[in-house]
Amino acid sequence: MSSRLDLAFPDGAEGTVLLIGADAQTDLAPFDRARTRIVQRQAADHAALAGRGWTVATRPDGAPADTAVVFLPRARDQARAWLAEAAANLAPGGRIWVDGQKIDGIDAMLKELRGLTGVDSVESKAHGKIFRLPGPADWVPQRWAARDLTAAPGFTTRAGVFSADGIDPGSALLAAHLPERMPTRVVDLGAGWGWLSAQILARPGVEVLHLVESDATALDCARLNVTDPRARFHWADATAFSLPEPVNGVVMNPPFHAGTRSGDARIGAGFIAAAARLLTGAGRLWMVANRHLPYEPVLARHFAEVQEIGGDTRFKIITATGAGRVQPAAPARSRRARR
């Protein structure tokens, strides 16, 4: 089945090509591996593309491209930053294409860009659009370029990272329910830009904290925000992360959607399974989740004891221990804390 890229490049893309945001599911048939560079900041997609022989980096290498394709992200400020990035790496006479789904805002972006410059070669297919923008790309507003944001005093973020404009309410609630003294070896699974990690390190007991984050931009922010020498940074898919030795604490605020606007418990289930693999049998998990997501059966499959220790109408705070001690003949005990 043909894709929107086939419609835009029926004879293949000529010259050097820069793809910003292409992922492991993108149809790359119109592009020549030898002449194509991909910018992908998510660890799993980056590894998958590199494993298939593509040249992949977390940022452009500065070499000008004859064709740049921006695969629209959902966050509008991030989309603008990627367009500015494409414009800054375009060769004289080069052109920019924008591809995206309706649910990610391609129609709104098309309207915005038509207010700034000419748009041509608009193609629609599979609930999305692809279109071409003129070169040179001197129409891109300077304010679109990626810049540092301040989400909280002393914390730097960038457009597009999770909760870039401020502390996530779920993370704040989770931090308020962490114990006064933390275990010695802790993993912050899906650490984002590091606010929750900083709260963990502020408690006594921690000897080492592993920050695991799949978004390279968020992890770069975390490195700026968390300068404690006990911190270790890992650019990795949290659901596949492992360590040589088990830890005795995992803290996490797992994402609950990817590619759709509705909640998807499968993502959090992957985080829960990873936490169970990382922990010792006596280790403990603390997590926050949207209240409507059914994580309790998943937790019961991986932990001997599961307890809700707090929350509100939006979120629930859950702790679990006894990883790997679940007996098939005796389902794991789940109870709700008395409040």
Q: Roughly how many Å apart are the termini?
A: 56 Å
Strand element count: 17
* Poorly predicted spans: 258-262, 329-339
Mean pLDDT: 92
How much helicity do the residues have?
A: 10-25%
Helix-strand sequence: HEEHEEHEHEEEEHEHEHEEHEHEEE
DSSP summary: helix tally = 9
The rounded Rg comes to 22 Å
**Biggest β-sheet: strands ordered side by side in the sheet:** 12-11-10-13-14-16-15-17
Instruction: Characterize the biggest β-sheet.
Output: 8 strands, mixed
Structural class: alpha/beta
Overall outline: elongated
**Amount of beta strand:** 25-35%
Question: Could you explain how this protein is built, in words?
Answer:
- This protein has 339 residues and is of the alpha/beta class.
- Helix content is 24%, strand content 31%.
- The chain has nine helices and 17 strands.
- Strands 12-11-10-13-14-16-15-17 form an eight-stranded mixed beta sheet. It has a seven-stranded mixed beta sheet with strand order 3-2-1-4-5-7-6, sandwiched between helices.
- The longest helix is centred in the C-terminal third of the chain and has 14 residues.
- The C terminus is likely disordered.
Task: Describe the secondary structure blueprint for this structure.
Blueprint: H1 4-8, E1 17-20, E2 36-39, H2 43-51, E3 55-57, E4 65-71, H3 76-88, E5 90-101, H4 106-114, E6 120-125, E7 128-133, E8 149-152, E9 155-157, H5 169-176, E10 185-189, H6 195-201, E11 208-213, H7 216-225, E12 231-235, E13 247-252, H8 265-278, E14 279-290, H9 296-302, E15 303-311, E16 315-323, E17 333-336
Helix pairs in contact: 5-6
